[in-house]
Design brief:
By secondary structure, the protein is an alpha+beta fold. The strands form two sheets. An eight-stranded antiparallel β-sheet has the order 1-2-3-4-5-6-7-10.
Length: 292
């Protein structure tokens, strides 16, 4: 029996970076979590402990901070591309790099040049892979919490001896959107594209009369692809944040879709991919979201 070393990578995870760019009295804040991973001919360090080809994870962390000083961070996609290309171009034995960035939003407090309030749990994300002279960019968002109090139904599903869920023609529909979209082409305005994809997701969720969360998922992805030609495919994960009617009959009260119990768990989890049939080959694009 032969034992061999399989795919591997290493890096510095979750480097916290906050930058303040000053334009006179007006300050601009960036709050990021950056993770870097490097790939290449790294058999020696695994098999013999020879670290001659290992770019220390501390060096990777320091590079993140130095790059943030040497030039404005800008859009997270551009920052991730600069970091990834630096590692691959600077070290002959490093053949690939993966850079993941989460951007934590802050809103300027009205009337103040340098005071901010945190935007909430929603994060803007990007995942960039550099390999063999190519770059793949997958961007997205996490924890975009949405709810509509009507315009949603759920009925017609199979029933058996274990089914207790009542059918409904009017329910609250709520979810926390996790979305990833793969870019194709060049010259993309990252900020505009992200803002527009987010707008389309929100508007479609609100406008689409939903017979199931699956139907809503497809409609959201389809709408993005119809309006944004730079997006090749969209992946969505939508936990169903259930709201159940409270039985008020013991108190002699009628509950006409007015009082609900918001359940924390368990929850339904609806996931899916919507893609163009003529999209470019994704290559390594989705590997940026997995371990290898």
């Amino acid at each position: 029996m032969a034992i061999t070393l399989g795919p591997n990578q290493y890096g510095k995870a979750e480097v916290r970076l906050v930058t303040v760019r000053r334009e006179g009295s007006v300050h601009h804040l960036k709050d990021l979590t950056v993770s870097t991973s490097l790939r290449g001919d790294l058999a020696a360090t695994h098999l013999t402990g020879d670290n001659a080809d290992v770019v220390a994870t501390d060096t990777q962390k320091n590079t993140v901070y130095a790059f943030a000083k040497e030039a404005p961070v800008g859009e997270i996609e551009d920052f991730a591309l600069r970091l990834g290309r630096h590692f691959v171009d600077s070290f002959e034995h490093i053949s690939g790099a993966r850079v993941l960035i989460d951007e934590h939003g802050w809103n300027r407090i009205s009337g103040h040049d340098h005071a901010f309030s945190q935007a909430g749990s929603e994060k803007r994300t990007t995942a960039v892979t550099i390999q063999d002279g190519q770059a793949w960019v997958v961007s997205g968002l996490d924890d975009l919490v949405v709810l509509k109090s009507t315009g949603s139904e759920f009925h017609g599903f199979p029933r058996d001896g274990y089914t207790t869920l009542a059918e409904t023609n009017d329910r609250i529909l709520a979810t926390a959107v996790t979305a990833r979209w793969r870019y194709q082409g060049d010259g993309i305005d990252w900020a505009t594209s992200h803002a527009e994809v987010r707008r389309i997701l929100l508007e479609t969720f609100a406008d689409k009369h939903s017979l199931s969360l699956q139907q809503t998922l497809y409609a959201m992805g389809e709408a993005v692809l119809k309006e944004r030609e730079e997006v090749a495919e969209v992946r969505l994960s939508l936990p169903n944040k259930h709201h159940f009617l409270v039985d008020l009959s013991p108190f002699g009260l009628k509950n006409d879709n007015e009082v609900f119990y918001a359940a924390d768990r368990p929850y339904g989890l609806i996931e899916g991919v919507v893609l163009r049939d003529d999209a470019e080959d994704p290559g390594l694009a989705w590997h940026t979201l997995a371990a290898f």
